[in-house]
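Standup notes, structure subgroup. Blocker cleared on the NAP input:
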Amino acid sequence: MSDEARPASVADPDRAWRLGVLGWPVAHSRSPAMQSAALADLGLGHWTYQRLPVPPDEIDGTLAALADAGFAGANVTIPHKGAARRACDVLTDAAREIGAVNTITVLEDGALHGDNTDAPGLLDAIGVPLDGRTALVLGAGGSARACAWALRRAGCSRVAVWNRTAARARGLADDLDVDVADAWFAADVVVNSTAVGLHDPAETFVALPVPEGRIGEHGTVVDLVYRPEGTRLLAVAERAGCVTVDGLAVLVGQGARSLERWTGRTAPRTVMADAARRG
Ligand code: NAP
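Run returned:
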């Protein structure tokens, strides 16, 4: 195990490497379409990226077998990001501090390297400097942790977390040295990291603390939730003149960072975005 070891796939790109996304369920994931298009564009069509549905009681064994099964690495989604963190031999600061791994890379020496690209993926998707800005993160689950960490690292002057279950917001705030927001405030950036709006758009301004009539007071509104027809949060924000960032832009940001780790090459982000939007 070594911080110095290269990704095995960077050392030997001609091999037919396997990649995939580990989750339960994972049928909805757009990562296979997005990553397969990117691999073809990079001339790595002999690599494959597949859905890997793995139930919780099988994840530890699956992670232990990754290297021997010919994997260059894997993305990790709900509910396995904590198990992935525990299975990795080497962790980036982001993975260690957030407490979750979404990108595993098999190193030349067989060790598993764990990173969290959800955090820089959010910043890539926002695409403008955030130093000195204020941020309100809605939610206290896995993605909220990555968002709060990223926004603090990006130099926001204040990052505050609101959550339906207040104790979880307090735990996140203590872990990551950010504030708890008891109520809405007009932050420069607001990020919806809850599942609200995914199934019932009418729930948006009822379940979240954001007043519909004041959403225009935010400069930027990010919704991690993605729906093909768009979300109500972003539709209202756009009409109010906010800059909006949708969940697919964040998906592309994290996926591009993962691909760059596995290939050592610049990710074709436009190709990935087009493929992700086609589904
Ligand atoms: P998670 O760990 O299960 O957390 C879910 C969060 O949503 C919790 O804060 C929960 O609050 C809150 N929530 C759920 N239902 C709610 C309701 N009716 N009212 C208020 N709050 C509610 O999930 P996650 O991994 O953080 O993911 C959250 C969302 O982000 C999901 O929709 C997921 O699809 C999306 N996501 C998108 C990307 C992307 O790349 N675009 C990446 C990751 C996640 P409590 O603590 O009170 O239960």
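Discussed briefly. The mean pLDDT is 96.
Next: hand off to the docking folks.
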